[in-house]
């Protein structure tokens, strides 16, 4: 294979593995379907080990749970019994100090909507959980970041653990926590703290690593102890990056509190969203979801100002005046204030949404059904089980035959030869592989082909080490008996990522070319990034009901934003000197975009693809609530059955898929950066 590129060699290896499996399928059926006798009872082993470990630490965990009950109850009591005018004015005063008039108005309007929605008591319960879980997460995450900075030997293991924690689906956290701490709101509090700690740890470590050497040397020369150097010099110098961690910690905690409502049974906003969704009260569900969105936006914007280098100062007397106004109104009208949960001014609107939705779905039932069926029958089903099983008289109007399979392979082989003659061997072989995958279906792919293909791709992306790691990790999924479910997850998330790459790339391109388009797209992206995951399920359920198509749309809605942002950012970040040189040489706008901006933006676009993949896997488990199969469904079922072994194993399998995809895309992005000299 001398003279061939790494990509060509990898494609030929994958094609050879696929051809062997295809030729030997009839004589060696175990090449296609992994024998059940070879499967190890890994789920049972993990369950037994975890049950032993959880039983060992359960007394300490229950004691900690009982301890955390008191601050949570205290925060809940304070927020629930504080008059709502005082809460609104206190938040507005803080918003004024952080961001001035615009942020203060945002706080007034946002909390006014929460009050008018009738979900004020539930909102205060949610904030009570956040108010206790965030300090806990800040302490845990900050401590981990400082320890990793102080002891370089543990830095690499800590980074690996943080990677795992952020790739393991959020639902997988809940199963062992349910066993440890029991059913109740404290579980949501602890789950939020665990989930929100990694962003804080990462940013603390990153901030301390970026402290200028001159600052460290000055601290040493001044004769300070190591603790003095750390807390009086280095941490203040890393303050901006640490504040980014605080912002991300707050958002993660709020997101996880909503998810933890599944096992919390607490009268909070997350529980209201779940309850109204289960009752098919989509208007009320959307209203509760909007309350979550408002809290997410307010928390994001207010904490985001702490990350700015130079923040405008605002007169504190105005803040004190707003706070005094809230106290005065609360004192004067104490006896006349209604219970905040009784307002419910938007209930007629929610009822109208339900009626309007029913009318819309009835009037457009044929169009909506046709759209859903067309995507299912002509896109998703062939990707899942292959053309040879998906093409039926019921769906396509005719049956797939072996002659058609032969024709598809012949067309793929012809395209491969054409591209090979042009010197593009890798692209040609990949087209042939794609034809085989389309004929077979992702969920039906032979396991040797998947291992060989993934290993070859990892070798191209990151070398021999990543290839070995990829094959070993995928082998653990294969031996654990979760292979078929993993392929189902891979199929749906892969289809959603491809759709995000096409649609998000197109929107990002349009946003880069036209500032007017970006002015419209940007607030939509901001809203989508602050909406908690559950809320994405509401609009698709309202229109398309439960099913795989609804899950597919929900994943796209959540995962498309990074693709849009990073594509646009990469295309508009081309250095001025490169643009000037292209302009001087007479390049047209299209030539400049294709030959200058796009190649330079490739690393940024690949980073956006990386984030899109991780977002898709994160949403896959949430989408299990409305009709997906695969690992997400296994995690959700494990949660309902308190099956720690299945929950941990399925969560680990999904984390493995996300981790492999993450490392591969990062490898390709790094290669492009080196090629560009960045």
TrEMBL record:
<dbReference type="InterPro" id="IPR035906">
    <property type="entry name" value="MetI-like_sf"/>
</dbReference>
<keyword id="KW-0813">Transport</keyword>
<feature type="domain" description="ABC transmembrane type-1">
    <location>
        <begin position="123"/>
        <end position="303"/>
    </location>
</feature>
<feature type="transmembrane region" description="Helical">
    <location>
        <begin position="397"/>
        <end position="418"/>
    </location>
</feature>
<dbReference type="Pfam" id="PF00528">
    <property type="entry name" value="BPD_transp_1"/>
</dbReference>
<keyword id="KW-1003">Cell membrane</keyword>
<feature type="transmembrane region" description="Helical">
    <location>
        <begin position="613"/>
        <end position="638"/>
    </location>
</feature>
<feature type="transmembrane region" description="Helical">
    <location>
        <begin position="490"/>
        <end position="513"/>
    </location>
</feature>
<feature type="transmembrane region" description="Helical">
    <location>
        <begin position="644"/>
        <end position="665"/>
    </location>
</feature>
<feature type="transmembrane region" description="Helical">
    <location>
        <begin position="78"/>
        <end position="97"/>
    </location>
</feature>
<feature type="transmembrane region" description="Helical">
    <location>
        <begin position="425"/>
        <end position="445"/>
    </location>
</feature>
<keyword id="KW-1133">Transmembrane helix</keyword>
<dbReference type="InterPro" id="IPR000515">
    <property type="entry name" value="MetI-like"/>
</dbReference>
<protein>
    <submittedName>
        <fullName>ABC transporter permease subunit</fullName>
    </submittedName>
</protein>
<feature type="transmembrane region" description="Helical">
    <location>
        <begin position="127"/>
        <end position="148"/>
    </location>
</feature>
<feature type="domain" description="ABC transmembrane type-1">
    <location>
        <begin position="486"/>
        <end position="665"/>
    </location>
</feature>
<feature type="transmembrane region" description="Helical">
    <location>
        <begin position="465"/>
        <end position="483"/>
    </location>
</feature>
<feature type="transmembrane region" description="Helical">
    <location>
        <begin position="171"/>
        <end position="196"/>
    </location>
</feature>
<keyword id="KW-0812">Transmembrane</keyword>
<feature type="transmembrane region" description="Helical">
    <location>
        <begin position="318"/>
        <end position="337"/>
    </location>
</feature>
<feature type="transmembrane region" description="Helical">
    <location>
        <begin position="103"/>
        <end position="120"/>
    </location>
</feature>
<feature type="transmembrane region" description="Helical">
    <location>
        <begin position="286"/>
        <end position="306"/>
    </location>
</feature>
<comment type="similarity">
    <text>Belongs to the binding-protein-dependent transport system permease family.</text>
</comment>
<feature type="transmembrane region" description="Helical">
    <location>
        <begin position="249"/>
        <end position="266"/>
    </location>
</feature>
<feature type="transmembrane region" description="Helical">
    <location>
        <begin position="39"/>
        <end position="57"/>
    </location>
</feature>
<feature type="transmembrane region" description="Helical">
    <location>
        <begin position="533"/>
        <end position="561"/>
    </location>
</feature>
<keyword id="KW-0472">Membrane</keyword>
């Amino acid at each position: 294979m001398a003279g061939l590129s790494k990509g060509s060699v990898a494609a030929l290896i994958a094609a050879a593995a696929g051809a062997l499996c295809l030729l030997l399928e009839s004589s060696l059926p175990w090449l296609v379907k992994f024998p059940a006798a070879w499967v190890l009872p890994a789920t049972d082993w993990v369950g037994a080990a975890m049950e032993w470990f959880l039983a060992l630490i359960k007394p300490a965990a229950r004691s900690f749970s009982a301890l955390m009950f008191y601050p949570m109850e205290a925060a809940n009591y304070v927020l629930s019994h504080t008059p709502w005018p005082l809460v609104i004015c206190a938040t507005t005063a803080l918003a004024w100090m952080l961001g001035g008039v615009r942020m203060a108005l945002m706080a007034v309007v946002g909390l006014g909507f929460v009050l008018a929605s009738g979900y004020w008591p539930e909102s205060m319960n949610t904030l009570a959980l956040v108010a206790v879980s965030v300090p806990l997460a800040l302490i845990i995450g900050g401590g981990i970041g400082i320890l990793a900075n102080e002891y370089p030997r543990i830095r690499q293991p800590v980074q690996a653990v943080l990677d795992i924690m952020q790739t393991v689906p959020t639902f997988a956290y809940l199963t062992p926590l349910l066993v440890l701490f029991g059913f109740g709101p404290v579980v949501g509090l602890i789950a939020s703290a665990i989930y929100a700690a990694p962003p804080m740890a990462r940013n603390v470590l990153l901030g301390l690593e970026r402290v200028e050497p001159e600052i460290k040397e000055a601290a040493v020369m001044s004769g300070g102890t190591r603790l003095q150097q750390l807390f009086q010099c280095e941490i203040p110098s890393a303050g901006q990056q640490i504040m980014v961690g605080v912002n991300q910690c707050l958002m993660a905690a709020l997101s996880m509190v909503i998810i933890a409502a599944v096992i919390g049974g607490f009268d909070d906003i997350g529980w209201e969203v779940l309850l109204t969704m289960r009752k098919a009260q989509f208007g009320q569900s959307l209203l509760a979801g909007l309350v979550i969105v408002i809290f997410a936006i307010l928390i994001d914007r207010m904490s985001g100002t702490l990350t700015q280098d130079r923040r405008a100062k605002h007169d504190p007397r105005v803040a004190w005046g707003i706070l005094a106004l809230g106290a005065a109104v609360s004192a004067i009208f104490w006896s006349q204030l209604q219970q905040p949960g009784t307002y419910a001014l938007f209930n007629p609107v929610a009822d109208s949404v339900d009626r309007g939705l029913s009318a819309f779905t009835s009037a457009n039932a044929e169009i909506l059904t046709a759209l859903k069926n067309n995507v299912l029958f002509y896109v998703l089903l062939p990707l899942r089980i292959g053309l040879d099983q998906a093409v039926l008289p019921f769906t396509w109007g005719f049956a797939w035959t072996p002659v058609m399979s032969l024709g598809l392979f012949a067309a793929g082989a012809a395209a491969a030869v054409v591209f090979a003659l042009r010197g593009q061997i890798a692209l040609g072989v990949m087209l042939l592989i794609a034809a085989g995958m389309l004929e077979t279906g992702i969920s039906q792919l032979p396991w040797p082909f998947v291992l060989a293909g993934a290993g070859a791709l990892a070798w191209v992306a990151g070398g021999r080490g990543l290839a070995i790691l990829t094959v070993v990790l995928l082998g653990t999924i294969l031996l654990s008996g979760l292979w078929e479910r993993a392929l189902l997850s891979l199929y749906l998330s892969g289809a959603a990522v491809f759709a995000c790459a096409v649609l998000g790339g197109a929107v990002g391109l349009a946003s880069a070319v036209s500032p007017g388009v970006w002015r419209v797209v940007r607030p939509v992206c901001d809203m989508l990034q602050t909406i908690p995951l559950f809320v994405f399920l509401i609009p698709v359920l309202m229109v398309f009901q439960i099913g795989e198509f609804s899950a597919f749309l929900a994943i796209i809605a959540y995962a498309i934003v990074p693709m849009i942002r990073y594509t646009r950012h990469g295309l508009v970040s081309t250095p001025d000197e490169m643009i000037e040189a292209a302009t001087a040489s007479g390049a047209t706008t299209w030539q400049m975009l294709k030959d200058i901006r796009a190649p330079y933006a490739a690393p940024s676009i690949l980073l956006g693809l990386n984030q899109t993949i991780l977002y898709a896997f994160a949403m896959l488990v949430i989408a299990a609530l409305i009709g997906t199969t695969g690992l997400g469904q296994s995690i959700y079922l494990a949660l309902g059955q308190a099956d720690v072994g299945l929950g941990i194993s399925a969560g680990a399998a999904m984390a493995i898929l996300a981790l492999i995809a993450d490392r591969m895309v990062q490898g390709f992005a790094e290669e492009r950066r080196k090629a560009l000299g960045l």
